Amino acid sequence: MKHAGLVITSILALALSACGDKAKIDNVSVGGIAQEALTKADFEAYLKVKKIPNEPGNRLERAQKTFLERNAIAEAITKEPVVDKSLIEAELRDFRNELLITRYFEKFMADKVSDEEVKKYYEQNKEKFAQRRVQLADILLRLSPTTTEQEKSVQFKKAVEVYNKAKSGGAFAGAAAQYSEDPITAKKGGDLGWVQEVDMERPLADKVFAMKKGEVSEPISTTTGYHIVQLLSDPVAEKKDVKELEASIKYRIQFEAKGKEMERLLAKGTIKELK
After folding, report:
1. Handedness of CA 46, 48, 49, 50 (dihedral sign)
2. Which residues pair with 74 in a beta bridge?
3. What Cα–Cα distance (Å) separates residue 183 from each residue in 142, 152, 201, 204, 256?
4. Strand 131-142 to strand 13-15: parallel, antiparallel, or no bridges (unpaired)?
5. Which label site among 14, 66, 87, 156 has the fewest CB atoms less than 10 Å from its CB?
6. Rg (CA), the chain
7. CA atoms within a 13 Å half-sphere pointing along the CA-CB vector of 190
8. Is the CB of residue 177 less than 8 Å from the CB of residue 186?
9. pLDDT one-digit tens code per residue, 167-226
10. Which domains does the chain possess?
11. Where are the alpha helices (DSSP H) in 171-245?
């Protein structure tokens, strides 16, 4: 059964035999925007959706009544002028598509990933699971979402001047104390301690992990402002055992498999453009 817009053209025959056989649905057809027939399988599917046991009794009889009444009401509504059938069809199509995709990938993602697949993925992608961190000092010249282009230009010019003062020998800590707009780290000469790569914005991380101990960066632009950083130690990478990463690896394998399956289904689909 596809959707609303139904015209009940015959009576749903639901009979419980004296021998206790399950209820049967026979000789039911509906029509409307799309002609189709309701069968025993349709009603059994309805029972599954509603989680109602297909067993003789009052609960099954109430389900039969509801099944008929809702289809009859939907059939009558299709004849009412107040209803915009095109909007209903659009909403039903969108819901149907979402439901199909969700249910399909619930089953698809339920496939278990073997221990061998986990080990193989780990060996081939060790670098993805290395958690890099670095000890650094930072001088921050802040920007905000409301900062104008003119204000950014002024702040950048100031950042360049601070960089020129901080890049020599032991001048960084003094420059941080004097110019950094982060009051907490400014008191410590800009020392941020050990920082994980995942906690940095991409432009900052890309620069930092390409530097060497003692090196001072030129101003780096991020959403929070301009950073001038000095590495207090060389970056280190901490690797975790495959057992610690098992759940994460299984998710990655399934996620990548889902992406490939989406591409396969998209290529297989016949709807490519509007007519």
Report:
1. positive
2. none
3. 12, 20, 20, 20, 43
4. unpaired
5. 87
6. 33
7. 28
8. yes
9. 876 799 999 999 999 999 999 999 999 998 889 999 999 999 999 999 999 999 999 999
10. 6-109 (no CATH), 126-238 (3.10.50.40)
11. 171-179, 183-186, 202-208
